[in-house]
Amino acid sequence: MQDKIVKSSEISIKVGLDQQMVPARMDWKADDNPEGSEYQECKAMLLSIFDKEHYDTLKIDLWTKDMQVNEMDRFFFQTLRGLADTYRRATQNAELANEMHKFVQYFGEKTEVIPKQ
Questions:
Q1: How far apart are CA 116 and CA 58, in angstroms?
Q2: pTM value?
Q3: Mind listing the pLDDT tens digit of every residue in the chain (117 residues)?
Q4: Phi, psi of 34 (to 5 degrees)
């Protein structure tokens, strides 16, 4: 038996492209955003959707042309750290999540997002 949906929420993303069809500006908003439901500017996004019928992951990875390498390093560090945490919560596989966190630590140190230990 499927759960009854009691509420819906919408997330919207607008991507402004330059003449070469490169993202020049991106804005997002969400109905449930505690900071308000107005569009907010962002520089990058990674969206992964798991297709339950085909067991495949669909991806959209976009960043604006003014995103700096050090910003991308920080974005990936924070994303990888979040993925490791999510994996632990979703699977209860602490051993593998800890291994993922070791890589995140390595990545952060290598990109100088965090200091070397």
A1: 35
A2: 0.89
A3: 678 999 999 999 999 999 999 999 999 999 998 888 899 999 999 999 999 999 999 999 999 999 999 999 999 999 999 999 999 999 999 999 999 999 999 999 999 999 998
A4: -65, -20
